[in-house]
Amino acid sequence: MYPILVLSVTGLVTLFLGFLKSKKILLPASLLFVAIAFLSNFIDWNAPGLYFYDMLEASNLSVVFSSIILLSAFLVMALSKGFLDEEHAQPAEYFAILQFSLVGAIMMTNFQNLIMLFVGVEILSVSMYILTGSDKRNLRGNEAALKYFLMGSFATGIMLFGMAMLYGANYTFNISDARILLLQPVTDVRPVFLYVGVTFLLIGLLFKVSAAPFHFWTPDVYEGAPTIFTTFMSTVVKTAGFAAIYRILEVSFSPMYNFWWVMVVTMAILSLFISNITAVSQNSFKRMLAFSSISHAGYMLLSVVGLNNKSGDSIVFYSFAYALATISAFGVLMVVSKDRLVDGRPNENIAVLNGLSKKSPFLAAVLAISMLSLAGIPLTAGFWGKFYVFADAASRGHIWVLVLAIMMSAVGIYYYFKPIIAAYMKEGEGENIQLSSFYKIILGFTTLGSILLGLFPDLVRELL
Amino acid sequence: MLALTLILIPLIGSLVLLLLKGSSVGSSKNTALVASLATLAVAIYAFTTFSTQTTIGVKYSWMKDLNINFHVSIDGISLLLVLLTAFLVPLIITSTFKHTYKNHASFYALILLAETALMGVFMARDIFLFYFFYEAALIPVYFIAAIWGGKDAPRITFKMFVYTIFGSLFMLVALVYLYMKGASAEIDQLAVTAKLLSPNAQNLLFWAFFIAFAIKMPVLPFHTWQPDAYSESPTPATMLLSGLLSKMGVYGLIRIMLPLAPVGVANWGQFGMVLSIIGLIYGSIIAIQQNNIKRLIAYSSFAHMGLMAAGVLSGNINGIQGALLQMVAHGVNAVGLFFIVKIIYDRTGTRDLTTLGGITQKTPALSIYFMIIMLGSVALPLTNGFVGEFLLLKGVYDKNAWLGGFAGLTIILGAVYMLRLMQRSMVGESNDVTAKFKDVSGSEIAVLLPIAAVVLVMGLFPNVFLKITEPAVNSILQLMK
């Protein structure tokens, strides 16, 4: 809960820092602010309670979700060194917006009232619309921002509509009170708009985590946005979105499991099928990772499908593993594609990775481990992430879902290996890549994290 | 502690290699050889001090909430395969001494990593740990095959990788299922779990594990990755694949599937045996027609694995003991044969049987080594192949006489393709291709001599090995009842 306060203030401070002549201070200052927010997060550790007139609830689970969000944001910001140098960049505004968006993301992890959920989603989404279009001279970026905005606002509208119906059915926005109402026996049937409300609310949230069939914006937006914000989107927004989905379904609507599980399982399977099959034929690394992001939404939904008292832990682990691997992958892409321009834009095809193992063995290793982790190969964090969500799905007896998901992970291996093959087995042109030690530390951290969590998943599981 | 040492020595060796990346080729080779020989020394020490009464093992808690332990231990079956691994890896490393591979440090580090994982597979006593090492063994071999392989290697080895990972995903489903049933992850407790499972569940578990292991071995119809992968990979990777990795499949059948799904084996085992034996005959017939000697041995390998699978599925003492002995014999012979193919290819630049001939005239030594290993491979009495194959055939025959009859064809067909290989390459007049064939060198003898010695020693004293494994096999058979 405290990060919300910290980041609201520091976001404003960052805006004012923009008046200074030297823009050099902005990055270290923003990193410091996020670090302070990260530390302040732990004031709530083992001190659960309701705040602000029952609007927010602090719990250990929400603290862990916020920590993952803040840590991912910290790592992404640390990688953003490059865009400060561009002449049209407005770093103060971007760093401020990033911090504001984190306020929204953290609200989504600990809301107690549907109003706060809506406010959180809106803060996060509006920030993302702006950041997607932040490269103003890039036509595709502009297109992506507009697309994202139109479809996103439509989804938010549906979500708000759903919330209104839920109020009509339950006479409350408080999610715990709604649960108490749902548990009470009723003499006649429940109002129809309760069911419509839950459906609409879920549609809005599933749009944010880009689950199929609400995924159409994802590839274009991921490709059009500057890579740094794509990374932010696929880690922070996804984690926050799943924290919200899990929270609303677990706290409020778990008595209605028999109603919504059919919908969630359909979307999980659709996400897995559409994304994995489409990703196979992608040539652009960024688009491939966009489809991979959809598929990981599908895997995380499996945990929701098998909702039990461990599902939250599984989603935490999965989000963390996914965030680490994604930041590594995009980090490598940013470094490699920076100086390889095609039509004035960074070349983001998989072919740009050709021969990377000769040009920079370090980056090639980072890339390989992140891809192995995304593919869910044992010894990496991604494997245990998959294992936990599969175990959740199996706990409710959905073995056939599991078999489908496993077949799709086999398809996943196919495309996750394309970058590895490009990096290690193809000959590439270009000079050796010099990497600043700063990048080395960040990418080394994410890679080491992927391996350590793969060997000792208890490091995170024991916390919960 | 001994068990842990066997895993740690190659692991440390590979880390040292990766850290000393800039050093010379010679030091990379020596580091790798020293690490693998140290592992062999420990394995031999374990062999000499082994007794069936005491178990050598360690157990650490690994994942508390899943109740998964890092539990490794050595019993008779493990010891046999640990010895095989420890014996073959130094030979595989020595076999590369004539070559200078680019990125040599990574190359040897990957071989040692594969050895680490193989040791882990053969000693793991926790089903998750087993799965972990089982997957981990593939990754270094995949990279060796893909990076240092031929022009087509990335495509072909990738097929192998996807195929085998796909198989192991079935195993993963089975593991998740067992975990949800609240079963213990201890391999020694699997038989207890089996009693709680319905026959239907056991049938499904049989298929999940059978497909996973059948792809690895491989057994018909899951073999299509194998001939290409064996022939396109660089020889060290082929040796690792055929000599050691394929054995993980047979080992898994014995160690996990038999105790876990005895009812499944009773229901479907015969079907699996039919598949294996069709594969055996099919592989042998293709081997007879091959002119590419590397592919020929790849298909003969496929045929041999089929007989081992059938022996294990027969579920009696002869079949399993035969499979264990044959795993060692085939591992040793396959490494020897692939090495001879490499020697021929290095000297003549061809693997085409129709262009070879008369090598004996140029180098009688090579042809003697070849002769010994080949006789082991065709299971002549007094060589290592004989006892294993005899026991396997007896096991299959006891289960089903018809299948035993068809399996017996392996003796004839095996002799046909191996003798054809011998005749076309070694015997006869030397021609343009083989005219300048050089005699075997020191490092080549260092590989061939131990292999030839083992072929004969195992043929003369098979009881040494059978005695180690017998109690462990008996206890598995007891558990199946």
Word description of this protein:
- The complex is a heterodimer of chains A (464) and B (481).
- Chain A is built from 19 helices and four strands.
- Chain A has helices at 2-17, 26-41, 60-79, 91-110, 114-132, 139-170, 175-183, 192-208, 217-224, 227-252, 257-279, 285-305, 311-337, 356-359, 361-375, 381-395, 399-425, 437-455, 458-461; strands at 49-51, 56-58, 341-342, 345-346.
- In chain A, strand 3 and strand 4 form a beta hairpin.
- In chain A, helix 8 (192-208) runs antiparallel to helix 10 (227-252) and helix 13 (311-337) runs antiparallel to helix 18.
- With 481 residues, chain B is mainly alpha-helical.
- Chain B has helices at residues 2-19, 25-49, 76-95, 104-123, 127-147, 153-180, 190-196, 199-216, 226-232, 235-260, 262-289, 293-314, 317-348, 359-362, 364-377, 384-399, 401-425, 442-460, 462-480; strands at residues 56-63, 68-74.
- In chain B, strands 1-2 form a two-stranded antiparallel sheet.
Layout of strands and helices, then pairs:
The complex is a heterodimer of chains A (464) and B (481).
Chain A: H1 2-17, H2 26-41, E1 49-51, E2 56-58, H3 60-79, H4 91-110, H5 114-132, H6 139-170, H7 175-183, H8 192-208, H9 217-224, H10 227-252, H11 257-279, H12 285-305, H13 311-337, E3 341-342, E4 345-346, H14 356-359, H15 361-375, H16 381-395, H17 399-425, H18 437-455, H19 458-461
Antiparallel strand pairs in A: 1-2, 3-4
Helix pairs in contact in A: 1-2, 1-4, 2-3, 2-4, 3-4, 3-10, 3-13, 4-5, 4-10, 5-6, 5-10, 6-8, 6-9, 8-10, 9-10, 9-12, 10-12, 10-13, 11-12, 11-17, 12-13, 12-16, 12-17, 13-15, 13-16, 13-18, 15-17, 15-18, 16-18
Chain B: H1 2-19, H2 25-49, E1 56-63, E2 68-74, H3 76-95, H4 104-123, H5 127-147, H6 153-180, H7 190-196, H8 199-216, H9 226-232, H10 235-260, H11 262-289, H12 293-314, H13 317-348, H14 359-362, H15 364-377, H16 384-399, H17 401-425, H18 442-460, H19 462-480
Antiparallel strand pairs in B: 1-2
State the gist of this model.
The complex is a heterodimer of chains A (464) and B (481). Chain A is mostly helical and 464 residues long.
